[in-house]
Amino acid sequence: MREKIKRYVAIVGIWLALGLLGTGCARSSAMSQETADTSTDEDMPAWKEYAQEPIEFDWYINYSWFTTGWGENVVSRKITEETGVSLNFITPSGNESEKLNALIAADSLPDFITLGWWESQVDEMINADKVYALNELADEYDAYFYQVSDADVVNWYTREDGNIYGYPNSSFTPKDLEEHDNIGSNQTFMVRKDIYEAIGSPDMTTPEGFQAAVEKAYEMFPVVDGEPLIPVGAHVFNEQGNVSFDQYLMNFLAVPFEENGEIYDRYTNEDYITWLKMFRRLGEEGLLTDDIFIDQRTQMEEKLAKGRYFCMIYQHTDMAAQQKELYASHPERIYLAVDGPKNPAGDDHTLTTTGINGWTVTLISKNCAHPERAIAFMDYMLSEQGQLRIMLGVEGETFDYVDGKPVIRDKVNQLLSTDRTEYDRIYGADDAYWMLQNNVMQLQWQQEIAEPLRQITEWSYPYAFYNGQYDSFLPDGSQEAYEDSKIEALWSKTLPELLLAESEERFDEIYAQYIETREEYGFAHVQAAKTELMKEAKEKLGIK
Questions:
Q1: End-to-end CA distance of the chain, in Å?
Q2: pTM of structure
């Protein structure tokens, strides 16, 4: 996820990237000047005043895979009816960073922008005064923001100037995990059910057991429908490494995040190195196939839908659609979550949830011609009514109340379980519009999780671990951030070399060179800076 790409964009490249994109200003067909003076009553939502005044906003989503449209499905039609707002989504067709950089450089940011909270462009847009302070919009146009936003989240995202510029989705606080036992982690170790059971449902928590299971699976099932089995699957390799083989594996091994009050160097943990060497042995045997080093998400989804992977450390939500396809076509091939790699002590996994930073943040551009409508719409989406819409949809169409509780209709659930694309086209609930989703608020309406997702979702509940205090966000443009980016790039080059090393001796040589080089790049300086950030975050979160 955490791409950090240099933002030197030639002017010709800017205009090529922009293509026929408009200016990003909202288009209102029934907006009078007088309506700018809107609600400053915290209990009176401004969006209710605008329902009969149609307006369209451009909303940039910094993910090329986002394809859900607006206006055709049940949810988007109802939201437009309730707010007067229609949305025109803009997504990059190629590299996300290049597209967003081009928009920033040409001063053509759309009305709303959604991107990862860690992306360098967040600071860039704020520092260049290209986005509104949400609190200032709330004070002037819609104080309802303070009722529907989370005070802890607002405090966390408030900057030194006293302003909050972006609001996150999928945000959890330490208190949330204490108060709920049904918050899990996306991080999952999965095996293909039929193959796993055919090889005797072995224990894969030790390096020896893991290696033996992978070898036996490939020996017994080398081919899937005429195509080679992929013994071990993983997330994509990118400019930071591969989360399956670094961050997630460390979490499965319960590698600590801090030690003696300082950020811990997880990459030198002995248990982690032991497991990396086991994966190297699998690579030497040809069981780390080329696919995992070159495939992007689209290719992975195609292979997941066929059940071509035996096992993988992966985010289960990223393969939910493919799991449903398998359940419909080859139910014996669905993936099960089982206990994965563990440290020698057998400690429970420490699988992280999203922290208070959330996943993405949404900002309102100063190109927006009607910021009063933008903040009102954001507040609607953050409200219980908005969250009910984006999660469950519309009563009588997607769900009904039974004994006072909302229950999704059977035919809607059936489509959701078999064809996510068609479900989004017709209904558009189940967080199809996830940009401002509040997972904690939505727990009050949580439905019984349908197969085949229940097991892989609920498996992680006991292992969910809060680590928001360690989400170091080194200031963009700082020396530490520059050094950290160099170290990340070095690791992204080193990791595949380690996994594909021809011998353990060669592995040790590559690893030693990595340690030496990262020290030259300023590793000690970066660790010290991250330790200070951790201390500040703990104080802000009230964690001792």
A1: 29
A2: 0.79
